[in-house]
Design a protein that fits this description.
By secondary structure, this protein is of the alpha+beta class. Helix content is about 30%, strand content about 20%. Strands 9-10-7-17-14-15-16 form a seven-stranded mixed sheet, sandwiched between helices. It has a six-stranded mixed sheet with strand order 12-20-19-18-13-27, with helices on both faces.
């Protein structure tokens, strides 16, 4: 069973894939994390000796399907192709929270390993009882338990044994011994994504591919500007259309029809009659930073202090003060939001593209007045999220339409709806002050970050006097999580300012950072990146048309450093990144190929935010809601990318899907300065 069947209920699931060691009727919503969760909440042993593993996480391109399968296989001593992973189905899997924050690797992989290791011990103990021997004398390899006499018993044998039925109802042991990193045989290897064939052949059904019998297609009336409220609308023309279902529930107005084209016609007919009351603030993408400053919520600021930055600045030999700005940008996933909803006597089933199945179930139940046990949410592997799909708007829209139509309904957001209706990465206004002594040492640091949030707020550098603060503001656009959260803005400002301080001190940017670094992990990746890039020689060879820059950073218990070369065409004011060398360390590496892919993806995505991406808006309206006006990186924009993964087996594994993005923009900005002497303090970075 390579993918979760579309209509597999829990009873059928037990019959199809759980006919071996499993008897549990406990519903997933009653399973707590850690102590008390039964092994059967995470694993089923099938009669053919394969394992079905269960996870509430969502696969949206970052690779948990492979890594969680590896985790189960490693501890069960089973080939990884003998693991069938079912993900993100609220009727079948435990609640593992939303898929966000790079938490799958440090939290959910260990939980899967604990379940699998507990299962292995239970199976070995069961075989030992049958043989009447000490379990410690038995060995397990590829699903086969062997005793010293050479006698064997397979997992399949145990699954078919009648006395084994209740074994997996025992609790997962959080103190169970896990395989040491040097002894890994499956973890630590480049295992392909288990459903790779289905993905490349088109057999996999993404949320936008789901089709149900008798399904209609839905379109939703959207406000023309943020903050607008519907005053009146004439739905008579839409209601007169054949085969069109019209729904109005307060501000929710939507249409369903046998084709998306027909639903769109109904929407257009009604939209022409709509009257809206506008209430968006008179803010544009050009004036937004003053708006954020004027509407700062100082009473909600988060401030951390060490020493006295104010006093140290007063006594410093040299003081620098600069301001950095970061634009709103969109997540722009390959697959916009999509959902299919279907009602039956048992309740509501929704297939959706969001990264929190249990959160979506809760929200659907609350909004529709249903008990949660009558709502089922299934998240097929989806086409990207990057922090932008924490909410399940399309699921709720489809559910409302399906309830009114009495038939399944698919709602697929258009690209324009994704740009105008989804929340975006926060804009940022960041003020930095730094004080240098006569010997070039950094003695004071003030960092005030307005609006992006507190991710990567604190400096990793050893500075005796530090004040850092994160201050929220009233945003004119809806904003939320983005890949690595506010660290993309905070690290851009910090690493750009560190370069400015290095220049003021007359120091090499690399040497200046190293002189102020006590973080051994960050220092190691910075030195490695500089060595692989050939920093010293290439900096010496710089010219007005070509420059190199570097940056580093830490977030989510991982560290990154990047060196960049840029080419500058002064006549056309064009900037092109020609090479990026990045070094990344996030503890032990679970799947090298997958981690490499994540770092490369972060670099490519980081190029967009650094150079071209910006939401343009006025009067609450997005002015560039299409890829023709909102430019994400193209293939021709991608430079030579040289990635070096550093393995650190002295710490637990950390996630690798976010932190590599934070070094890209500041390294590019610093390279531009090296070539031109011009400081670019706003993202996206523009020479004009």
């Amino acid at each position: 069973m390579p993918e979760t069947p579309l209509t597999l209920d829990r009873r059928t699931f037990l019959q199809v894939v759980g006919s071996g060691i499993v008897i549990t009727v406990t519903a997933p919503e009653t399973w707590g994390q850690g102590s008390g969760m039964p092994v059967s909440a995470r694993l089923y042993l099938n009669e053919d000796g394969t394992i079905t593993a269960l996870s509430g996480k969502v696969e949206e391109g970052q690779g948990p399907r492979a890594e969680l399968s590896q985790a189960a296989a490693e501890e069960l001593r089973l080939p990884v192709d003998q693991v069938r992973l079912v993900m993100a189905d609220t009727d079948l899997v435990p609640d593992d929270g939303i898929t966000a924050g790079s938490r799958t690797t440090p939290r959910n992989v260990p939980e899967m390993r604990q379940a699998a290791a507990t299962a292995r011990e239970l199976l070995v103990a069961l075989a030992a009882r049958q043989w009447k021997v000490d379990a410690a004398t038995l060995a397990v390899h590829e699903g086969v338990i062997t005793r010293s006499t050479g006698q064997t018993m397979t997992y399949a044998d145990l699954a078919r044994a009648g006395e084994a039925v209740a074994t997996f109802t025992e609790a997962i042991r959080t103190d169970v011994a896990l395989t040491n990193v040097p002894d890994w045989t499956i973890l630590g290897r480049s295992v392909p994504r288990p459903n790779a064939r289905a993905l490349v052949t088109g057999a996999h059904r993404f949320p936008s591919d789901v089709v149900r019998p008798g399904m209609l297609y839905g379109r939703v009336l959207r406000a023309p500007a943020y903050g607008s409220s519907l005053e009146s609308i004439d739905l008579s023309a839409a209601k007169a259309m054949e085969d069109v279902v019209v729904v109005r529930e307060d501000a929710f107005v939507a249409f369903a029809a046998p084709t998306s084209h027909r639903a769109g016609q109904a929407l257009e007919a009604a939209a022409r009659t709509a009257s809206w009351k506008a209430s968006a603030p008179p803010v544009t993408h050009e004036t937004v930073f003053e708006h954020l400053r004027e509407h700062a919520r100082a009473e909600r600021a988060r401030t951390d202090e060490k020493g006295s930055a104010a006093k140290a600045l007063d006594g410093a030999d040299q003081v620098l003060k600069e301001e950095y700005r970061v634009a709103y940008i969109q997540h722009a996933p390959m697959e916009p939001r999509a959902a299919v909803a279907e009602w039956s006597d048992e309740g509501l089933t929704v297939w959706a593209g969001c990264d929190g199945p249990f959160r979506a179930r809760r929200d659907l139940a609350e909004d529709l007045g249903l008990p949660e046990e009558r709502v089922r949410v299934i998240i097929p592997d989806m086409g990207g999220g990057f922090g932008g799909k924490h909410t399940a708007e399309a699921a709720l829209e489809a559910a409302r339409l399906a309830r009114a139509a009495g038939r399944p309904v698919s709602v697929r957001w258009t690209r324009e709806e994704e740009f105008t209706g989804a929340y975006c990465r926060p804009a940022a206004l960041i003020e930095c002050r730094g004080g240098l002594n006569a010997d070039g040492s950094l003695v004071a640091w003030e960092f005030a970050s307005l609006n992006p949030g507190g991710a990567a707020l604190g400096t990793p550098y050893a500075i005796p006097n530090v004040t850092v603060s994160s201050v929220p503001s009233d945003s004119p656009l809806p904003q939320g999580s983005y890949r690595c959260l506010g660290a993309t803005a905070n690290n851009f400002a910090r690493e750009s300012f560190m370069d400015e301080l290095a220049a003021a001190a007359g120091a090499d940017p690399l040497e200046f950072r190293l002189a102020h670094l006590e973080n051994a992990r960050l220092k190691a990746v910075l030195e490695r990146a500089a060595k692989e890039f050939g920093w010293t020689e290439r900096r010496r060879q710089g010219s007005p048309e070509r420059g190199v820059g570097l940056a580093c950073g830490t977030e989510k218990n991982s560290v990154v450093a990047a060196c960049v070369e840029v080419a500058v065409d002064r006549s056309g004011k064009e900037l092109k990144v020609t090479e990026i060398c990045e070094t990344f360390e996030c503890g032990p590496i679970l799947n090298p190929a997958n981690l490499l892919s994540q770092v490369q993806g972060c670099i490519a995505m980081g190029l967009g935010g650094a150079l071209t991406e910006e939401l343009e808006f006025e009067d609450g309206k997005i002015r560039n809601p299409r890829f023709s006006g909102y430019r994400v990186p193209r293939f021709r924009d991608v430079p030579r990318i040289d990635v070096h993964l550093v393995e650190n087996r002295d710490i637990p594994p950390a996630g690798g899907g976010e932190t590599p993005i934070i070094a890209v923009a500041p390294a590019i900005g610093n390279a531009v300065f090296a070539a031109t002497g011009v400081r670019l303090r706003s993202m996206p970075l523009r020479l004009s």
